[in-house]
Amino acid sequence: MIRKLVSNLFFKTVHSKSHVLSPSKYSLPKKSLSFVPMNTSIIPFTMKIDSPQFRAIFTPEVKELVDIFRRHGYELRIAGGAVRDLLMHIQPHDVDFATTATPDQMKEIFQAEGVRMINTKGEKHGTVTARINDKQNFEVTTLRIDVKTDGRHAEVEFTTDWQLDANRRDLTFNSMFLGLDGTVYDYFHGIEDLEKRRVNFVGEPKQRIQEDYLRILRYFRFYGRIAVEPDNHEARTLTAIRENIGGLKGISGERIWVELKKILMGNYSKDLIIRMLDLGIAPFIGLPDTPNLDEFRKVYERALFLQPQPVTLLSALLDSENEVQLLHSRLKFSNYERDLALFIVRHRDIKDCETPLRPYQALVFTTKGKLGDIQEWVCEVLKYQGEDQLLDKFRGWQVPKFPINGHMLLDKGVKGGPRFTRIMTRLREIWVDSNFQMTSDELLQQLPTVAEEVG
């Protein structure tokens, strides 16, 4: 199976008899990897890659970083997500590195080499950020083990053992390392799991989750990226999540929202959200106890091809503005996201009209906010409703300028205050009903009648 993967995954793969092990020698049997004692040494499966994506990593700045560590005698490897992406023929957006050098040792060699270091906040966790040639930043992290965790943060201890660092990571395909010569080091069957499009925790799911409860959401995010079936989870993984779902109450809303947005933008988001709700996630992330699943399913099916924003999909689970505010208080939406959710809940049930686009055009003039934001919100309502043709028409519509301004009303003797605002609003409604055709003179002729209406 491993050899089949090697031939399938890479445009060009280089084998070395001293490195490539047969599957039978690949460490421990799969079922034995549920718990790996700290003193148990695992021989990693290794293989070499030489793909276009791998070669493209080596910018002059990466080469300089590699040379610096080589000159000072410390080992450096690519770590985590970049390795996973390269094995899937995806060019990594970011490349993070792991090293046997401690943060103090890294600072010494960077200072000796005249390399500027930035963002020193990560040093206590082992990460030093170096800026090479004043052009490219690299995060380099010391190999480490967790000595104490509380479900959110970890106290770490530095090590020079690559296996121990791999053992503390969340998912098998995120626990691999890649040498700068193209050698992949895989301790926990990450390559096999990638080949089978399978998402597995390193070791016991319960233990990994309790170290950081955000890993529950990371599991579902990566499921959307890796899996080929929408709802094919291992029973022990779901059990571990269900038993520990309450741990999310201690995770900040900002961190939860970052992961949830990625889930909503990824593959199988409908099935993943439904599965997460079935596991009991709702009260711990700010959703109502009984989210509107019927509405969510309908909106997902009719809106997905229009690429709605994550907030748009999430709003389908909510029945009221109060539920929007409660969700916002938990997830800490941006002001834009909060206002978008409120706008959708208020206007998603617009009644049919003889001129179907008119109610949506009217919203541009009756909603407070920046014009660009309001236009985007109207587009999201149309996506929510699956109105692709109206969406195209709205996007092609040139917003006309309302011909009345405050000075005109003041000149007509209308005094400032709430009544002034009501009169301006009513004139704007009349103008919208005229298909934006009435001139300022024609609208001002309506002023006596409008003034009487508003009192």
Automatic annotation (TrEMBL):
<dbReference type="Pfam" id="PF01743">
    <property type="entry name" value="PolyA_pol"/>
</dbReference>
<feature type="domain" description="tRNA nucleotidyltransferase/poly(A) polymerase RNA and SrmB- binding">
    <location>
        <begin position="234"/>
        <end position="285"/>
    </location>
</feature>
<keyword id="KW-0547">Nucleotide-binding</keyword>
<keyword id="KW-0819">tRNA processing</keyword>
<keyword id="KW-0479">Metal-binding</keyword>
<keyword id="KW-0694">RNA-binding</keyword>
<keyword id="KW-0808">Transferase</keyword>
<keyword id="KW-0460">Magnesium</keyword>
<dbReference type="InterPro" id="IPR032828">
    <property type="entry name" value="PolyA_RNA-bd"/>
</dbReference>
<protein>
    <submittedName>
        <fullName>CCA tRNA nucleotidyltransferase 1, mitochondrial-like</fullName>
    </submittedName>
</protein>
<dbReference type="InterPro" id="IPR002646">
    <property type="entry name" value="PolA_pol_head_dom"/>
</dbReference>
<feature type="domain" description="Poly A polymerase head">
    <location>
        <begin position="76"/>
        <end position="199"/>
    </location>
</feature>
<comment type="similarity">
    <text>Belongs to the tRNA nucleotidyltransferase/poly(A) polymerase family.</text>
</comment>
<dbReference type="Pfam" id="PF12627">
    <property type="entry name" value="PolyA_pol_RNAbd"/>
</dbReference>
<dbReference type="InterPro" id="IPR043519">
    <property type="entry name" value="NT_sf"/>
</dbReference>
<dbReference type="InterPro" id="IPR050264">
    <property type="entry name" value="Bact_CCA-adding_enz_type3_sf"/>
</dbReference>
<keyword id="KW-0548">Nucleotidyltransferase</keyword>
